[in-house]
Amino acid sequence: MSDFLTLSTGQRMPVVGLGTWKSAPGQVKQAVLAALDCGYRHIDCAAAYSNEQEVGGALSLMVGSGKALRREDVFVTSKLWNTKHDPEDVEEACRTSLAHLGLSYLDLYLMHWPMAFQRGKELMPRRDDGSICYSDTHYRDTWAAMESLVDKGLVKAIGLSNFNARQMDDIISTARHAPVVNQVECHPYLSQADLLSHCRSVAVCVTAYSPLGSGDRPWAAPDDRSLLTDPRLAAIAQRYQKTPAQVVLRWHVQRGVVCIPKSVTPSRIQQNLQVLDFSLSEDDMKLLESFNCNQRLIVPAVERDGKRVWRDAEHPHFPFNDPY
């Protein structure tokens, strides 16, 4: 098993990267430094994480002329947020991320969601009743503006995040620059087998966010199942003398899925990279696959009429009303 996947552009994308979602200010700089120091060559960022300047601070210490790493040694991803879908806003949003990260180009730039929110400076533009202000900008129009970022050399490749198969095909049908990646929630409780198969058929690589089940998600309910404490996983980990997290990350890599576990703990950051020195048996791969219960953990929910419902399900481009 190689430590990278080759994208349709020919770029080599390391199969394990450092995720930076939910990494608090004051912690993410040290996390990126620790990751680069122990061998990571893939950092996943997004404007909406509000920590790209701090990530940039770490990159400036380690990457570039006369530093420990050359720019071309590190694969950096960022994402276009929902309030920047208007074609006029796309280039400025990308340039802001580049400025915050201290880079002249991104290896990969993703459309964070297919859903457009109202333009403006607020990440989450809301009405008085707390509901999100949506925009009807179509993701195909946003994509056309992202393609010009490739033409101008601001990004090496573009891709998608949180798109279903139908929406992905919709983009591909009109694209000049095809999407190289679809980054989606994926873990043994949400194995994404159908979407993974579809992505393979159209030469799109899948990146798994929250690959360990995001046990620290702020909205977790007390009775939500927890992947890393699942006794079935513990039994597999014991057989391989590995941590439960390492077994799950190995499962992703062995399926040909790139994963971006988030951690700010140096020892865990290092452990998460140590998944290329063992293989899971076919039986254990199937056993992990059998954990699947199509449980999405990373869909913002709200209370309506005493029930928890998906917040953006009314948006015309909400991706999760389709089966995959």
UniProtKB/TrEMBL annotation:
Residues 17-291 form the NADP-dependent oxidoreductase domain. It catalyses: a primary alcohol + NADP(+) = an aldehyde + NADPH + H(+); S-nitroso-CoA + NADPH + H(+) = sulfinamide-CoA + NADP(+); S-nitrosoglutathione + NADPH + H(+) = S-(hydroxysulfenamide)glutathione + NADP(+). The keyword Cell membrane applies. Substrate binds at residue 112. Gene3D superfamilies: NADP-dependent oxidoreductase domain (3.20.20.100). Its EC number is 1.1.1.2. GO terms for biological process: aldehyde catabolic process; glucose homeostasis. Keywords: Cell membrane, Cytoplasm, Membrane, NADP, Oxidoreductase. GO terms for cellular component: apical plasma membrane; cytosol. It comes from the Eukaryota. InterPro entries: AKR, AKR1A, Aldo/ket_reductase_CS, NAD(P)_OxRdtase_dom_sf, NADP_OxRdtase_dom. CDD domains: AKR_AKR1A1-4. The record marks 79 as: Lowers pKa of active site Tyr. Pfam families: Aldo_ket_red. GO terms for molecular function: alcohol dehydrogenase (NADP+) activity. It is an enzyme of class 1 (oxidoreductase). It is found in: Apical cell membrane; Cytoplasm, Cytosol. The active site is at residue 49. Belongs to the aldo/keto reductase family. Catalyzes the NADPH-dependent reduction of a wide variety of carbonyl-containing compounds to their corresponding alcohols. Displays enzymatic activity towards endogenous metabolites such as aromatic and aliphatic aldehydes, ketones, monosaccharides and bile acids. Acts as an aldehyde-detoxification enzyme. Also acts as an inhibitor of protein S-nitrosylation by mediating degradation of S-nitroso-coenzyme A (S-nitroso-CoA), a cofactor required to S-nitrosylate proteins. Also acts as a S-nitroso-glutathione reductase by catalyzing the NADPH-dependent reduction of S-nitrosoglutathione. This is alcohol dehydrogenase (NADP(+)). The lineage of its organism: Eukaryota, Metazoa, Chordata, Craniata, Vertebrata. The gene is akr1a1a.
